[in-house]
Amino acid sequence: MKALSVALISALAAALLFACSHRNDSPAAGTAAAVTATRIIDADNDPGQWLSHGRTYDEQRFSPLRQINTNNVEELGLAWSFDLQTRRGIEATSIVVDGVMYTTSAWSIVHALDARTGQPMWTFDPQVAKEKAKHTCCDVVNRGVAVWKGQVFFGALDGRLFALDAQTGAVNWEVATVDPTLPYTITGAPRVVKDKVLIGNGGAEFGVRGFISAYNVQDGSMAWRFYTVPGNPDLGFENAAMEMAARTWNGRWWEIGGGGGTVWDSMAYDPELDLLYFGVGNGTPWNREIRSPGGGDNLFLSSIVAVRPDTGEYVWHYQTTPGESWDYTATQHIILADIELDGEPRKVLMQAPKNGFFYVIDRTNGELLSAENYIELNWATHVDIATGRPVEVPEARYTNDSFLVFPSYLGGHNWHSMSYSPDTGLVYIPVLDFPANYGQPENFRYNPGAGNTGVHGIIGSLPDAQAERDAMRAIVKGRLLAWDPVQQKEAWRVEHKGPWNGGALSTAGNLLFQGTADGNLVAYSADKGETLWSFPTQTGVVAAPITYEIDGEQYVSINVGWGGAFALVFGEFVQSDSLPNVSRVLTFKLGAGQQLPPVDWKPRVVFNPPALEASAEVIHEGYATYQDVCMGCHGLNAVSGLIIPDLRGSAYLWDADSWNDVVLDGALKDRGMASFADNISPEQSAAIRAYVIQQAHRGKALLDQSAR
Ligand code: CA
Question: Catalytic annotation on 327?
Fold first, then answer.
C-alpha cells in the first residue's frame, strides 16, 4: 500500500513537472496531432508513438517496443490494409500520434487514418498538375509528412509547402517554396524543429540551384533559406559560407542549370548541440568537366552541412565526394548516435552515401573519424583520414574513353532508410550493388527543363547482344547489410534477388524488418540476420516500416507499392519478373489474420510495331535523344519498368502525327506525359519514334524466339 502511494505521488509529481516545464511547448488542449519538441525529445518514454520521420530527431529508426519479438514474431498477421488509390511509387514513412496515422501516397496525396483500424478520417489531394512528372528524375513519389502542434505539413511535388489542420485536413496555409517556372520538385518529408518547418527540394538532374528553407509553423512566413551552392559571384553572396563555397568553383555554372546540390531527403537534429544536419545532392550537370571546367571541390555538393536551426547560419560541413562527377549525392539517411570509439564516448553522425563509403563523423565539429567502403567500389582506393578526402582512381574521372564505375549513379545505397539499433550496435543498410558507364559527351548543350547529366553512354551502355545483357544482369545485385560502425566492417548480410529493396526498422524485440523488391515484408533477428517471418505484399516494397502501440497492442506498419528510380529506369532488369504496383498501407499485429484480396492485374507488353523504315542514322539519333530525354521515366533501352507505359507496345507508333500530338503538343499531359516541344525538335521526335519502333521489333523477336 505504502509502495503504491509512493509510486502514485512520484507519478503525480512527474506529471506536474511535465505540465510546468512544457507550458510554452504544448498545443491547445484536445488538439489532434499534439506533437511538441519535448514529446519528440522524450520519445523513448512514450514509445507507442512514431512522432517524427525517423521516429526521433536522431533518426535512428529504432523502436524500444518489444511486445513483438523473436519468440512470437511468427504469430504476426495482417490487422488491416488501406488502399492508397494510386499506381506509382510509394516511399512514405507514416507518422503515428495518439492513435492517428498520417501518411502520403504518390502525387503528394495525404491521408489521415485510424491507426488501430485503418479507417480513413480525411484525405487531402493538392491537385498537382500531372505534367509536373516531366521534372521528376525518380517517380512522382512522396516520403511523408511532419506533424506539429495540431498541424500536418507536407511538400507537394510542384514545390508547394502545405500546413493542414490535423483534425479536418483543411488547409491552414500554403506557400510556394520554389520558383514554379524551374524544374524543382519536392519528394522529401519535412521536419519541424523549434516551430520551423524545414523543407528542401530536388531537381539537380534537370538544372536548379539547391537550397533548404525554414518556414514558421504559424503562418508559413519564411524564416531563413540556406543555398547549398553559390550563384553568379558578380551578383554578390548571400552569406560568408557562399563566398567560401564560390572559391571552389570554376566556369559559369549558373548559366547551365545553377550548380545543383539539392537537399531532397535527409535531415537530423541534435537538440543539445542545437545543430540541424542535412545532406546535399549531386551537381548540375553531373559531369564536373562541364560544370566547373578545370576542377574544384564545388562546395557544398555531396556534403553533410550543419547549421543553426533558428537562423540557418553555417556551422560546419563535411564533403564526401569533392568535385563529384557521378551523381554521388550525400542526401542519404543521416543517423545520430552516441557510441564508444577507442574507449571514448563520441557524439557521431553516420551516413552511407551513394559513393560506397560508410562515414563516422564527429557531429560537434564535422571531423571525420573513420570511413570504410560498405560495398566493392572502384572510383577510389580509400578515404584518407588525415585529409578527410577520398583517394581517387584517375580513370574514374572519365574522358572520351568511358569508364565502368562501381557503384552507379543510383549509389551503393540510395534514399531507402537505414536503421541503427543501440542494442546490437549495428547499422542496417539496404545496399544496391551495380556499376554504370560514364563518358564525356561529344558536345553538351544545356537543355532547360530537360535532363542535363552531361554524361555520355551512361544508359546506353547495355550491349545489343542478349547474352551480353544477361551477363550484365548477373552483376546487378542488392542486399541487406548489417554494418558495425565501430569496427567499420560487415557483421552479416542477406543477399536479395535484386536491388531496390525497402528501408529498415529495428526494435528492442531483437527484430529487424525490411520489405523487398520481390514483394515480401520480412522480419530478421537483428543480431544475426536469421529470417523469422515474412508476409507476401503482392507488390515490391521500397518504403520503410514503422511500429507503434495502442492500448497495449504493438503494431508494425508499412506502405507498399513498387516504384521509384530503379523501377522506372531499369525495366530491362525488372520487367521479366516485375510485380505490379499495388499501393497500400499494410498494418500487422500478433494474432491477426486478415487476407489481402488477390491481384489479378499483371501488366505486359503487347508488341505490334509498324514496319521499320528509318535509316540507321536516324535511329541512332533517336537512341541518343531517347536516352537523354525519355529514359528517366520510360526505361533503359525503351524497356519500361511497367509502372509507366512501355512505348514499344504503344499504338502511337503507328501514326507520326498522333505521336507528335503526344510528344510535342502534350495530348496526354493530364496523364503525366508533358509536352517536350521546348526540349526536342520535330526531327528528334520522329527519330525517337523510329528508335522505339526498332526496339519494339527487337522485343518482339526475342519474345518469338523464347516462345519457340
Ligand atoms: Ca541525383
Answer: yes
State the distance from the centre of ligand 1 to the C-alpha of 85, rounded, in angstroms. 28
328 Cα–ligand 1 center, Å? 7
| CATH number for the domain harbouring residue 694 | 1.10.760.10
- For position 2, what pLDDT does the model report? 38
How far does the centroid of ligand 1 lie from the alpha carbon of residue 10, in Å?
A: 53
Task: Please identify which residue in the block is written with the cell numbers 535531415.
Answer: 267
For the record, the C-alpha cell of 646 comes out as 512501355
Q: What is the pLDDT of residues 550-601, one digit of tens each?
A: 999 999 999 999 999 999 988 877 777 778 899 999 999 999 999 999 988 7
Whether residue 407 has a cis bond before it, omega within 30° of 0: yes
Pick the catalytic residue from 265, 327, 433, 527: 327
Residue for grid cell 537505414: 418
How many angstroms is it from 452 CA to the middle of ligand 1? 11
pLDDT at 20: 39
| H helix and E strand count, the chain | 11, 37
Mean pLDDT across 469-495: 93
| Angle, vertex CA 167, rays to CA 163 and CA 172, nearest 5 | 25
Q: Are strands 553-560 and 584-590 parallel, antiparallel or unpaired?
A: antiparallel
Q: Contact, 641 vs 570, CB < 8 A?
A: yes
Domain hosting residue 643, numbered range: 616-707
Q: Over the chain, what is the mean pLDDT?
A: 93
3-class state of residue 483 by DSSP: strand
Residue at 607 is within a domain: no
Q: Tell me, in angstroms, the distance from the centre of ligand 1 to residue 643's CA.
A: 20
The string of DSSP codes covering 170-228 is -EEEEEE-S-TTS--B--SPPEEETTEEEE--B-TTT--B-EEEEEETTT--EEEEEES
Distances in whole angstroms, Cα of residue 160 to Cα of each of 200, 210, 603: 11, 16, 33
Q: What is the CATH number of the domain that holds 269?
A: 2.140.10.10
Q: Please indicate, yes or no, if residue 651 is contained in any of the structural domains.
A: yes
Which one of 422, 444, 474 terminates a domain? 474
Instruction: Tell me the pTM.
Output: 0.95
Question: Which residues line ion ligand 1, judged by CB < 5 Å?
Answer: 282, 327
Cα(564) to ligand 1 centroid in Å equals: 13
CA distances from 230 to 122, 182, 238, 283 (A): 42, 17, 8, 12
How big is the CA angle at 335 (ends 396 and 554), to the nearest 5 degrees? 130
> Sign of dihedral through CA atoms 698, 699, 703, 706?
positive
From the CA of 645, how far away is ligand 1's center (Å)?
Answer: 23
Q: Which of 425, 451, 474 is the C-terminal boundary of a domain?
A: 474
Instruction: Identify whether 594 is part of a domain.
Output: no
Q: What angle do CA 165, 211, 543 make, to 5 degrees?
A: 60
Looking at the structure of the chain, the number of domains it has is: 2
In a domain, 543, yes or no: no
What residue type is assigned to position 257 of the chain? G
